[in-house]
Design goal:
The protein has 128 residues and is mainly alpha-helical. Helix content is 55%, strand content 8%. It contains seven helices and four strands.
């Protein structure tokens, strides 16, 4: 029986080329400390979950050209994180919490002004 590789989360993050700025978010998502020792399989599972929650990865290069064509149309509308929109629009924390729960967003979700306004109309002002 082979022995399992066991390293700290920080060491696996370095070996799997996880950006050092992402390590704290990775640890927070999984409730681990950077110096906590895990197996390779445990880390791979956590990494897959982290990549899925972070959004689409850059790996599928064959699908990039079609979305770029769509982004040209959308490029007129600037996408910003929800936290920035909340500051600009002076939304209170309870209202931001309602939008997060209703739309499944988090502070880093990048959305357009139109998407934000539609969510505000639907979930805060009850207009459809």
């Amino acid at each position: 029986m082979s022995t399992e590789d066991r390293y700290s989360v920080a060491e696996f993050a370095r070996r799997y080329k996880l950006v050092p700025d992402q390590v704290p978010a990775f640890c927070e998502l999984h409730g681990v400390l950077p110096d906590e020792v895990v197996t390779r399989e445990e880390f791979k599972g956590m990494l897959e979950c982290f990549n899925a929650s972070a959004g689409p990865s850059d790996a599928p290069t064959s699908t990039e050209p079609p979305p770029e064509a769509k982004e040209e149309k959308v490029s007129k509308e600037k996408k910003q994180p929800l936290s920035r929109w909340a500051q600009e629009r002076k939304l209170t924390r309870p209202r931001v919490a309602v939008l997060k729960n209703a739309m499944g967003w988090d502070e880093r979700s990048k959305i357009t002004k139109a998407e934000l306004q539609a969510a505000i109309n639907k979930h805060l002002f009850n207009k459809e």
